[in-house]
Amino acid sequence: MPRVDFERDLRQLQDDLLFLGSMVEKAIAKALDALKRRDFSASQEVLEEDNIIDRKRFEIEEKCIDLIATQQPLARDLRILITVLHVAVELERMGDYAEGIAKISLNMGDEAPLKPLIDIPRMGELAAKMLRQSLDAFVNRDIVGAHSVSEADDEVDALYEQVYRELLTFMIEDPSKVKRATYLLWVSHDLERIADRATNIAERVVYLVTGKLVEMKTSKY
Questions:
Q1: Which residues lie closer than 8 Å to 37 by C-beta, 6 or more apart?
Q2: What is the pLDDT of residue 220?
Q3: Residue closest to 98 by CA, chosen among 152, 170, 151, 49
Q4: Contact at 8 Å (CB) between 160 and 186?
Q5: What pLDDT is attached to residue 219?
């Protein structure tokens, strides 16, 4: 394969990865909006659309493996392909968390959330922003931007701890609220994990640029 064709394929791979990222971001927003509005139809759509996210991830992986096998890339090109492989997995897992939120919404049925959804949507907004920032850092090979993703994760963790404490208090004071509180705990945990996955992508950006694997933070959960 001529070098120009290989470069074109690398660019297409990165475009595919960004498209996957946009699909995941939409899934997160849709799952949270459906939870807030108690829109069961939209929640079901998130479940169905997760299959498309899964297929896109495997399509990207197959392209990466094919290029590695046929082109035997070295140094920077190999790092790009390895990074794309890892980021695709992280994105697909984020999609799974969005799917999890949609399932929780369906399991809740007609029950209203235990408390007004204020902190949880805020967590979702921050996690989605981290996802966008991590992918921007990937596109721009921006180490500073990658580190800013890790710093933003502290705010998500703080919100998670706040939600956790509040819901735990509900459960202690009134055991009849345990089930409804647990639903929201699962949602907040899924969002916290999405933020952690965005941090993982940021770590891969650092690897892509420097060739060094760094751990920006260790999740407490």
A1: none
A2: 46
A3: 49
A4: no
A5: 45
**Contact at 8 Å (CB) between 112 and 180?**
no
Tokens of 53: 């996210």
What is the helix, strand, coil percentage profile of the chain, to 5? Answer: 85, 0, 15
- Two structure tokens written together for 66: 């094919």
> In angstroms, rounded to a whole number, what is the distance separating the alpha carbons of residues 200 and 103?
25
Band the pLDDT of 217: cuts 50, 70, 90: low
Render pLDDT for 46-89 as a digit per residue (tens, 0 to 9): 999 999 999 999 999 999 999 999 888 888 899 999 999 999 99
Whether residue 123 contacts residue 188, with contact meaning beta carbons closer than 8 Å, is answered with yes
Q: How far is CA 185 from the centre of its chain?
A: 18
Domains, the chain, ordered by start? 3-210 (1.20.58.220)
3-state secondary structure of 72: coil
Tokens 């899934």 belong to residue: 27
Give me the amino acid identity at 37: R
Please give the model's pTM, rounded to 2 decimal places. Answer: 0.92
Q: Quickly tell me which residue has 């580190």 as its tokens.
A: 147
Give the model confidence (pLDDT) of 108-143 as tens digits. 888 877 777 789 999 999 999 999 999 999 999 999
